[in-house]
UniProtKB/TrEMBL annotation:
Its EC number is 1.3.5.1. Signal peptide: none annotated. It is an enzyme of class 1 (oxidoreductase). This is succinate dehydrogenase. Keywords: Cell membrane, Electron transport, FAD, Flavoprotein, Membrane, Oxidoreductase, Transport. GO terms for cellular component: plasma membrane. It is found in: Cell membrane. Its main location: membrane. Residues 532-666 form the Fumarate reductase/succinate dehydrogenase flavoprotein-like C-terminal domain. NCBIfam families: PRK07573.1 (NF005749), sdhA_Bsu (TIGR01811).
Amino acid sequence: MSILDSKIPEGPLAEKWTNHKNNINLVNPANKRNIDVIVVGTGLAGGSAAATLAELGYNVKTFCYQDSPRRAHSIAAQGGINASKNYQGDGDSDYRLFYDTVKGGDYRSREGNVYRLAEVSANIIDQCVAQGVPFAREYGGLLDNRSFGGVLVSRTFYAKGQTGQQLLLGAYAAMNRQINRGKIEAFNRHEMLDLVLIDGKARGIIARDLVTGELERHSAHAVVIASGGYGNVFFLSTNAMGSNVTASWKIHKKGAYFANPCYTQIHPTCIPVSGDHQSKLTLMSESLRNDGRIWVPKKKEDAEAIRQGKLKPTELSEDERDYYLERRYPSFGNLVPRDVASRAAKERCDAGFGVNKTGEAVFLDFASAIKRYGKEQAVMHGNHNPSEEEVTKLGKEVVANKYGNLFEMYEKIVDANPYETPMMIYPAVHYTMGGIWVDYNLQSTIPGCYVTGEANFSDHGANRLGASALMQGLADGYFILPYTIGDYLADDIRTGKIATDQPEFEEAEKNVRERLEKLINNKGSKSVDDIHKRLGKIMWNKCGMSRNAKGLKEAITEIRELREQFWNEVKVPGSMDEMNPELEKAGRVADFLELGELFAKDALHREESCGGHFREEYQTDEGEAMRDDENFMYVAAWEYNGEPSEAVLHKEQLEYDYIEVKTRSYK
């Protein structure tokens, strides 16, 4: 085990990033034309990085498995993006955003990185407005803000319920400009299957053309991984079905440390599971918690009657409802952080108060908001004595303007009108705070291999605050990586083109081909999805919303056995030299089967509860997370050593000089 150096600059917190930019090496514009950079993943983190690097003059190659960068999973982000502009005049600042993020992450993130994130957040909004992103605006024309969980201010900029889509279109337009200039060469429908190291440095990748099946060699002076998170290790998650860990796992096996894999976020407002036939889950934006009130019946017999269809939720009076978040956390109410809200929902459902047929759902109710907005609108229109029908009509119009597309999506999926009856929600796997370990420059433990966005671990600690994923992805891509990667590339101005006929490329391609052939030639009888579903059930039941030592030990054994069964019994139809979606899935599930074991190992070793990592043995009398700052205030970074069971732990100690570390309270 070693102690990792995060390379946080010296000096006052608010001056670290500025001083660092002033002192790192730069690359002359004329020299940038001779340097190649590969970017794997073209969501917000990868797309913004590719566009910015190309704008600076680097030659960029982008890779995504989708048919267009517009289909990156960033498009699914609904609620908004944080920035500390304080447009509302409610006391926000860079420091408060920094503080809320560290506190929200349960004091398991880096001070230096998080303050930098807060510092550059305002620039993101200006950049996106300049691109034409249609953020919501107030009556006077200023950008509107709403609040998200874990904060007491309104700092979330949004575009109705499709913020991710609009931001991604902005990044995509910036990419397209560089594609037209010839500075970006886009390889869509390509999947990275290995990293190529030459003299210990990242110098290229092996990619598979997903249309023809051909393996290709691509060289560069640096490689950027921006391939998102690994939530689909649970099979059912809010992630796109194609989201995977493969790019991150391949660089992990080549020497990049994997940090905090057990830090996985369970989002509290998702459409509940309806049966084993499902292949993914659907998120209902956290922004809905601004106006929706979460409740279950106070009496178990009422919950049972609702489950059986004998009682409608609208038939229960206010006195018969338990607004449990407002009761338990009066200060933050329905806007507590995601991990807190998720555990509270699980506790109520486990206690027998769940409201759907499976007993695993709670209500998200907009009746109060409709009435409140309706009365406000009536007064604004000069009607001081409106009828109940008028109030309801006006209130629904306001709610529709704020959340209309989300309500439409819910009704299409559930076949229930959320304007008339409360939504049903339940927690689901959403975001992964763990990822590849990177230093302050976003460089992994492999020289020349950088990792941005959700694929790295750096900014969110043990729990991500809502609307911070888009903020981190764009901060990394637009404003951080373009500076820090130059510090490394300054040494490559005389290197020249990296040839792909070198032995290292030959060896990497050979290994990829052998692995694919092994999958294709396997004569098993089990489908890839069958094994993936079984992995997901192990992960959810024993590594999900709560964990314990017994369950984690069982999970490690069961995942290891399932991995062995996969390689002996999986059946992949078709060939490797053609379009073959089943082969794509098989490779990704093979990586999930290794990651899953490391995930459980990491959760077992961390004998505390913090953020999204909840160990049942370590909780307060009130059921809240109980941290162990004396023994576990560090980043757990795992080095690959042949098998997940043999992974070597390295620690990065976390120090807090500008924040008082204390038990989180949202009461």
